[in-house]
Amino acid sequence: GNLTLSGTLTNTGTLTSSTGAITGTINNTTGTINLTGDTTNASLTLNNAAGGTLNFSAATVDTAGTTIGTMADNAGIIDYATALTSYRALTVNTFTTNSGTINMASHASWASYLNITNGTLTNTGTITTAASNTGAHIRGNLTSSGTLTFNGNTYFDKAGAAYINSGTLAMAAT
């Protein structure tokens, strides 16, 4: 089903959604949010505080991924893993700041994607990609003064996007 919030939900527990849409604002302070399967949350504003964790993982075949309207700040952890039978995509229409950690996992046969539709993601934290044949794709404007750790094939492949790094960039041998 769908979840519609008229006000702001402060999450300190566990919230899990496998289908349907979430509309409104969620401040994930010390909780865990699990978004599994294909979910479109274009009207969701999500803030992940330093103690919060967002898990984007697919328990079944996943062909579309997860869409979030606005993520103003990620100071916590974003983990997403690929399903064994398909790719994993996280699309954020407007993703402003990552001061926490984004772990982009991949499977040997399926890639992971971070799609930023509008604006520029400013990374002052850490973005890590996993060792994989298929790799991780970062599609959108990215300015990083933080840490980028690429443990496998990583692609910046959005036409016309700007990628600027003034921080640390570490690439593992492939």
Describe the structure.
By secondary structure, this protein is mainly beta. Helices cover 0% and strands 61% of the residues. The chain contains no helices and 17 strands. Strands 1, 3, 5, 7, 9, 11, 13, 15 and 16 form a nine-stranded parallel β-sheet that branches. An eight-stranded parallel β-sheet has the order 2-4-6-8-10-12-14-17, with no helix packed on it. It is globular and about 45 Å long. The protein starts with a strand and ends with a strand.
The chain-level mean pLDDT equals 87
Distance between the termini: 43 Å
Q: What gross morphology would you assign?
A: globular
SSE succession: EEEEEEEEEEEEEEEEE
| Oligomer state of the chains in this structure | single chain
Low-confidence stretches are none
Main sheet properties: 9 strands, parallel
Q: Helicity range of the residues?
A: under 10%
Structural class: mainly beta
Radius of gyration: 15 Å
- Strand coverage percent: over 45%
How many strand elements?
A: 17
Provide a count of the helices. 0
List keywords for this structure.
174 residues; mainly beta; nine-stranded parallel sheet; 17 strands; 0% helix
Topology:
Blueprint: E1 3-11, E2 14-17, E3 22-28, E4 32-36, E5 39-48, E6 53-57, E7 66-74, E8 77-80, E9 88-98, E10 101-104, E11 112-123, E12 126-129, E13 136-144, E14 147-150, E15 154-156, E16 163-165, E17 168-171
Parallel strand pairs: 1-3, 2-4, 3-5, 4-6, 5-7, 6-8, 7-9, 8-10, 9-11, 10-12, 11-13, 12-14, 13-15, 13-16, 14-17
Describe the structure in brief.
The chain has 174 residues and is mostly beta strands. It has strands spanning 3-11, 14-17, 22-28, 32-36, 39-48, 53-57, 66-74, 77-80, 88-98, 101-104, 112-123, 126-129, 136-144, 147-150, 154-156, 163-165, 168-171. 0% of the residues lie in helices and 61% in strands.
